[in-house]
């Protein structure tokens, strides 16, 4: 299998990795979280500038730690969609330049395909077909993984992504940014049954609910109303209980839909990916429920749940082994459906 140098700059992590198939030779991640924390969220222009400042030294570090030289690199890859356009451009331009200078094939990689591949990094036995539950700051989707580059989205959120809901609820509870890890920690000391919150079901015109689609904006509003009500009554907001109830509601809602989808499509494995895959409540809830239905649930190692370049390299290595390469004229896309992944390659 080919060895790939991969760059990930789609949001607020500047990352470079050297990967051969499922083996990571080096993985460098510089988080910009402390820089964006003062603004309460990611500022796109600041993100691009940070990527520019740190990328070159990360490439050098990744090469050094991999104990490989340029002659041993078979291809150069970068995330090209979806994400912040300015941020993506930094990584993509660097990758194209390296490809030209070192005369290597260049590959643009879809960020969500990278999150799907993250599970391969710890599971040598995982192969398609399987169901991917992709839960990140920008996406919440149930994806039928058929093969490398072949994906069918079966369910998604109609509004906020799961990670976005964590971030928004943390903001309204004044817990800071990013919200997922703080709520996760706080929830461990709270009572998940303390407050009943809506799961975000989508009604169907003919009655009943959509089996795989959901919504998280109503849940966020319900938490806001709950906090306002408690404050109106002059009661102290029991932050740990609110966090635990909120987290359990998200875990229950994702679990129900993922299990229904896996069973309906006859898929015996669910691979979870994206930043929210790091959530301890979701891990426990989904594992327990899936075990009752004999469905195997796999999570990437924690360091490969949130954004990283190793997952991008893993996807790129697979594409390159099949002869897929991208044109140097390839641009970046702020949005791109997973079904269009193969449009990124000339093959
Ligand atoms: O995949 P990711 O790094 O970036 C995107 O592609 O969006 O996901 C970031 C999201 C953020 O919303 C963050 O709050 C959430 O993942 N997150 C978590 C946890 N760690 C990160 N959410 C819940 N529990 C966690 N432990
Ligand atoms: Zn991501």
From TrEMBL:
The reaction(s) this protein catalyses: L-threonylcarbamoyladenylate + adenosine(37) in tRNA = N(6)-L-threonylcarbamoyladenosine(37) in tRNA + AMP + H(+)
Cofactor requirements of the protein: Fe(2+)
Record keywords: Acyltransferase, Cytoplasm, Iron, Metal-binding, Transferase, tRNA processing
UniProt domain Gcp-like: residue ranges: 24-313
Cross-referenced PROSITE patterns: GLYCOPROTEASE
Binding site for Fe cation: 111, 115, 307
Cross-referenced InterPro entries: ATPase_NBD (IPR043129), Gcp-like_dom (IPR000905), KAE1/TsaD (IPR017861), Peptidase_M22_CS (IPR017860), TsaD (IPR022450)
Superkingdom: Bacteria
Pfam families: TsaD (PF00814)
EC number: 2.3.1.234
Binding site for substrate: 134-138, 167, 180, 184, 279
GO molecular function, one term: tRNA N(6)-L-threonylcarbamoyladenine synthase activity
Subcellular location per the Swiss-Prot or TrEMBL entry: Cytoplasm
Cofactor notes: Binds 1 Fe(2+) ion per subunit.
Role noted for this protein: Required for the formation of a threonylcarbamoyl group on adenosine at position 37 (t(6)A37) in tRNAs that read codons beginning with adenine. Is involved in the transfer of the threonylcarbamoyl moiety of threonylcarbamoyl-AMP (TC-AMP) to the N6 group of A37, together with TsaE and TsaB. TsaD likely plays a direct catalytic role in this reaction.
Entry's family note: Belongs to the KAE1 / TsaD family.
HAMAP family: TsaD
Descriptive protein name: tRNA N6-adenosine threonylcarbamoyltransferase
